[in-house]
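Continuing from the previous page of notes. For each protein in this section, the sequence appears first, followed by its C-alpha cells. Read the first protein now.
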Amino acid sequence: MATHNGSEGVVKSGSNNIGELKSWTLSESTETIEDTIMGDAARTFTVGLKSWEGSLECFWDETDTNGQVSFANGSTATINLYPEGASSSDTYYSGAIIVTGFERSAALDGMVEATISFTGNGALSTATV
C-alpha cells in the first residue's frame, strides 16, 4: 500500500508549474437520476452526468505569469494535478477548466494568499507521467 506526503504535490497550468502552491483540492461527483416506476417497492436510480471541481491555495505571486496569473477569474485553461509529484510513473489528473473565482486575502501577521476556484469543463482524465 502506497501513501504520499502532501508536500510532493504539484499543479500545472498546461506545462507550467503554479508558483507558491500551498495546497489543492479536487472533487468529483456523479448525478443520480430517479427511474422508479409505479409498482416498484423502493426508489431506484441510474447514473447521470459526472462533474468535477476544485481549488488551489497559494501565497499570492503577481509575477507568476505562466502560473497563478494564467488562472484569472473567468479564464479557461488546462489543469494538471499531481498528488504524488511529477516523476516518471506518478499518477496525475488532467482536464479543461473554467476559473470561477480568484480570492486574495491578507492578515497583519501572515502572508498575502490567493485561493483559486475552478470547475471542470468536460471529462477529467487520469494518467501517469
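Done with the first. The second protein uses the same format. Note its length before scrolling.
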Amino acid sequence: MTLSGNYVLDSFALLAFLADEPGAGQVRDLLEFGEHHADRLWMSVINMGECLYTVERERGLAAAHRAIAVFAQLPVGEVAATRERTFAAAHLKAHYRLSFADAFAVALAQEKSATVVTGDPEFRQVAALVPVLWLPR
C-alpha cells in the first residue's frame, strides 16, 4: 500500500490492529508510515476512549490496561477534545446520523485535511466531507 498525506484513525482501525482482525495489516502499514512521518497520523482521545470501553467490555479490564500500554507506544498523535473540536463534532452530529465519537474522527480529519481510516459503514454518509480509507470488515 502506497501512503501519502495525513490520516486519522477511527476506533474501528485501532480495534482491528489490537485484535489482529481483517485490516490489521493496513493499520500496521499506517503505523510504520507514522514512524517515518511525524505529525501525519492522528487519533482523537474520544476515539481512543471508544477503543478502551470496547476492549474492556469484550475482553476485561486487564486487556484494556494492556491496550493503554500499546497506545503509548504507537506513533499516533493523540488529539485532545478541545472546546472547538467538540463544537465541530457536535455540528457534524446535528447533520449526520453517526455516533458522537465518529463525529470527532470526521471533525479531526477536516481539521487536519486527512483521510479517515475505518471500516465502519456509518462513515459512508460523510464520505463526501472527508476521504475514507476503507478497511475490510
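What the second structure shows: The beta strands are 7-9, 41-44, 77-79, 115-118, 132-134. The CA atoms of residues 22 and 136 lie 6 Å apart. We return to this in next week's lecture.
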